[in-house]
Amino acid sequence: MRGSLIVVSGPSGAGKGTLIEAALDEVPNLSFSVSATTRKPRPGEVDGRDYVFLSRETFEAWIEAGKFLEWAEYSGNLYGTPADQADKLLDAGRSVILDIELQGARQVRENRPDAVMVFVRAPSLEETQRRLEDRATETADAIRSRMTAARTAIAARDEFDFEIVNDDLATSRPAMVKLVEEIVRNPGIPISSQ
Ligand code: ADP
Ligand code: 5GP
Predict the structure, then answer these.
(1) Burial of 192 by CB count in 10 Å (0-12 exposed, 13-18 middle, 19+ buried)?
(2) Is the CB of 39 within 6 Å of ligand 2?
(3) pLDDT for 61-116, tens place per residue?
(4) Which of 48, 58, 150, 174 is the most buried (most CB within 10 A)?
(5) The CATH number of the domain where 168 resides is what?
(6) Distance CA 110, CA 106 (A)
(7) Closest residue by CA, ligand 1 atom 12
């Protein structure tokens, strides 16, 4: 039995990475799909663990070679999900979680109708911006660009199967773990309630 393909999307700064980490810690049989990107590594990020960091030239060669399940340009950089890694894990019966932006999420929904789509957002755009500023990993320009993308993402949240409002982590963390657990336990079966 193939595992579940889980797409997590939502504004930058919403807390996707934080909640995905909680799910990976607590849900058995779940793996993270390591994306490729042309973005420069942040301090502490490890090549091959957080992302596969590529030059634009190499990324474009990977597109040409059909290596991506989905890819998109976001805030001046290219990001994509290598298909072979995710498919190997799914074939082996593991569930796979993707942390991707809206354009990529739409491509996965189109190409893999069995994927379960989860939208994560902060309680407000103001709080999203505050989190990005506190995280302090982006320039002011990059934060502005991410906030523009955040408005577009929020407008598309109805396209997703589930929404987690990441207000207080004491509540949102267990909510995420429970949701992902249920999706992993029932691959291919639609879940009717959150
Ligand atoms: P994303 O992956 O969506 O860009 P992160 O997981 O990196 O978001 O979270 C953005 C920032 O907000 C990080 O500094 C993280 O520690 C913080 N954060 C995450 N969830 C919460 C929360 N519920 N309340 C306050 N801060 C949060
Ligand atoms: P960051 O630069 O903060 O790590 O990620 C920026 C945005 O790119 C986030 O919204 C994240 O979900 C998205 N992203 C990360 N990997 C991929 C990917 O493989 N494909 C797509 N489409 N988006 C990605």
Answers:
(1) exposed
(2) yes
(3) 999 999 999 999 999 999 999 999 999 999 999 999 999 999 999 999 999 999 99
(4) 150
(5) 3.40.50.300
(6) 6
(7) 131
